[in-house]
Hints:
This protein is of the alpha/beta class and about 325 residues long. Helix content is about 40%, strand content about 15%. It is globular. The site of zinc ion has 3 residues, from loops.
Amino acid sequence: MRFFLITVLLATVALTSGCTKIRQFDRFFLSECAEDGPNPEKEFDIALPPVDLSEHLDRLRQEAAGFSLNTIAEVPYRDRVWPIYLASKSGSKGGKRLLIIAGVHGNEVAGALAAPSILSDVRAYPEIYGGLHLDLIGPANPVGLLHGARYNAQGCDINRDFANFATIEARAIREVIDETRPDLILSLHEGPHDGFFVIATRSTPSLLAEAVAAELKSSGIELATHSNLGSRLSVPGVMEEGWFITGAKTVLRISSLGAYAHQSSTPFLTTEGPWGLSDIDYRVRAQILAVRAAAKQLVSGASRLGTFSAGAEVQEASYNVLSVN
Ligand SMILES: [Zn+2]
């Protein structure tokens, strides 16, 4: 069955997009370890600002003032060991729990670089974040971030390792998810599209994704009209993983972080910013705004409806009354 589906999918991609796309599909979706180290991509036009990882970690520690800060993993590479941090803060009793994962793919730099500013945003907007229990993992792939690479030190894609858990990074993320049982997970990414969009798994209310996209648009962020796979988005800025994609991921054994969250029906949003833009401040700002918009929806849902709960059936209709302001 897996072989049959892979053949059909590759044939479809070949007919619609050509052989380069086949190779990219195999590399990005079917390969767990496509490289032999943290090698940068050569085929894409990614605007990669230089990253000083030590400085980034310093800033993350500074902005974590008022949070509890723990090292959840140490990633050895050559003669150094790089930490993956977990910054946490408690919310009010009964408050919902939000988990943010910054920078699983090291060459999608805006997601990783946004982490310190997200912590300062949490302090700046107590009316949004005050009641939430918040956990932030960053940088989720420090060696990839250091080298501008999608992959970790071993050349593995952490976001394809949520079945085998062969990487230190995926194991550390799984431990946090299993221990904290978040009501919503946000994973911050970028890609080759020209606008911003969010991907909602089947465990995620589509109206939550639409509300986040609407708020981004009203803040001046340009929304994508096509996904990273090139398909047209019926709602600009929103891609919903319907039953076909969810089923295909299962059959193809694409063991992503989102698929892992879906196993426990945990709502999960992937942010996808445009990595080709040279304006890195805009790209980072878009990620911060997406987190803020999602947090706002989580708070509204919790206070008015109480429908966000991990492991529970999501009641999509309840989101019809949510405000996007
Ligand atoms: Zn990514």
